[in-house]
Design brief:
By secondary structure, the chain is of the alpha/beta class. The protein contains 11 helices and 8 strands. The chain has an 8-stranded parallel β-barrel with strand order 1-2-3-4-5-6-7-8, surrounded by 6 helices. Helix 9 links the parallel strand 7 and strand 8. It is globular, with a radius of gyration of 17 Å. The mean pLDDT is 96.
């Protein structure tokens, strides 16, 4: 079964909009786990506009499922990851002012940098994943830098799903098969929701984990957090 990791950034965004500690990010993570989530994902950014660095330290003390920290591997980010030692670190090449992640790594151009960072993290026992576009050449490059997994950037799939889902999934299927060929674990994330998740799950071979935040938290406003997590888990069966 593909694991569901709930990205709780949006909960922190809501908290930060008013100040104070409501909703409480730590409690939300604990509740997500209690409701069935198999992992918690956070993506701290340099301006701390949603998840704060202190949140990461606090969450490390309570998360009992898989803790996944994703972000651009700047010195500050790497320091945070090394000190908290999550189960997984997902490296994402997002600019500091990016609203959300919008591209995967060029694993060929950044081969030396990624190799060095991944080696550092793996020496600490942290599983590594790198955010990539559904491009077979980028998967080949990922194999050369030594990553444990890749996370396929699924915005294009989600955008084109309702127009032609077979065409939308095609490059992702090719990338997934290439990952299997190289023995790389497969994750996926970005704009996945209750409409498009099941088809992705049923089509991609070897899909180990999906990280979902924005759509899941939006659905929770209508269905409640517990029910929403259960609805997403059903799509992954």
């Amino acid at each position: 079964m593909t694991q569901l990791s709930v990205n709780i950034n949006k909960i922190a965004t809501l908290r930060n909009a008013r100040g104070g500690d409501r909703p409480n990010v730590v409690q939300a993570a604990k509740d997500c786990e209690r409701f069935g989530a198999q992992g918690i994902t956070v993506h701290p950014r340099p301006d701390e506009r949603h998840i704060r660095y202190q949140d990461v330290y606090d969450l490390k003390e309570v998360v009992t499922t898989e803790f996944n920290i994703e972000g651009n591997p700047t010195p500050d980010f790497l320091k945070l990851v090394k000190e908290t030692k999550p189960a997984q670190a997902t490296l994402v090449p997002d600019a500091p002012d990016a609203i959300t992640s919008n591209a995967g790594w060029n694993t060929i151009k950044h081969k030396s940098f990624l190799t060095d960072v991944i080696l550092e993290l793996k020496e600490l026992g942290i599983r590594t994943s790198i955010f990539v576009d559904p491009d077979e050449k980028m998967i080949e490059g990922a194999a050369l830098v030594g990553t444990d997994r890749v996370e396929l950037y699924t915005e294009d799939y989600a955008k084109n799903y309702h127009t032609n889902r077979e065409q939308a999934i095609a490059p992702y299927l090719a990338a997934a098969r290439k990952a299997q060929e190289y023995g790389i674990g497969l994750n996926a994330g970005h704009d996945l929701d209750l409409d498009n998740l099941k088809y992705l799950h049923n089509t991609l071979p070897g899909l180990l984990e999906v990280s979902i935040g924005h759509a899941l938290i939006c659905d929770a406003l209508y269905f409640g957090l517990e029910n929403t997590i259960q609805l997403y888990l059903r799509q992954l069966k």
